[in-house]
Amino acid sequence: MASRSPIHYSVIVPAYRENGNIRPLVTRIFTALRRVDSPIPPDQVEVIIVDDNSRDGSVENVQSLQQEGYNVRIIVRTTERGLSSAVVRGFYEALGDNMLCMDADLQHPPEYVPTMLAALSPSSTFVLGTRYAKGVEMDKDWPMYRRIISSGARVLALPLTTASDPMSGFFGVRKEAFLKARNLNSQGFKIALDLLIKAHIPSEAIAEVPFSFGVRSEGESKLTGKVMIKYLEQLAELYWYKFSTLIIFAGILFIVALLLFARSALGALSPASQAK
Description:
This protein is an alpha/beta fold. It is built from nine helices and seven strands. A seven-stranded mixed β-sheet has the order 3-2-1-4-6-5-7, sandwiched between helices.
C-alpha cells in the first residue's frame, strides 16, 4: 500500500446545517487541485469541515466522500458554537502549515483554492480573497441592502488595517503567524480581521487574490441583526486593542490641558491679578 503524501495545506470550512453544500464544495476543490495548471498537488491538501452539531447528515456525507478517496474529515462540536471559534478550532487541528478558511455555502468559489493556497509563503504569511480589486464587480449578485451592509462594515474597519477587504471570510494564514495571535475573539463575526490585528500581520506580508462572490445555493444566510451587533462589538474591542495606548495618551493630554486652562482662568480671576 502506497504511503500518503505529507499534508502541507489545510482548507478549513466552518459549517452549520450545510449538508447540501458539502459534496459540491469538496468535489469542486479537488477538481480544481487536479487541473494540470494547479500550482498545488491535490495529495498534499486536506479539507476539514468543522460542524456545530448540525445533525443534518453532514457526518454521513463526509464518510461517503472519504470512501470515494477524498481527503476530507469532519470535526463535530457539541459544546461550542460560532463561526470564529470553529475556524480557530480548525486551524489548531490542521496538519498543514498553510491554512485556508472558506465558507461552506459556495459563495467562495472553490476554483480559487489552488491560487489562494499558492499565495502563502514564508514572506506572505496571510492571503486575502478581495472583492475590491480592479475588474471585480463587488457582490454583483447580492441585493442592495447586503451591498450597503458589506461596504459599510468595510469602511468601519479601514483604520485598523491596510488590507483592501478585511471583511472577507475567504482568507489564508501560515500556521506560525496564526500561533502568534493572542486573545482571539471566538465570538467575533470576522475572524480574518481579528487575526490581521492580533497576529500583527505587516502590510507587506499580505497577499491579495481578486474574486467575485458566488451565490448561495443551499441553506440559509447567517447574516442577522445579532451578527451585526456582534461585529460592532468586535470593532470596538479591536480599536481598543490597537489604539488603547494612543487613546490613553490623548486622554491624559486632554486632562492636562483642562487643568492648565483652569489654572490660567483662576489666576486671571484672583484679586492679585485684578489689582494690577
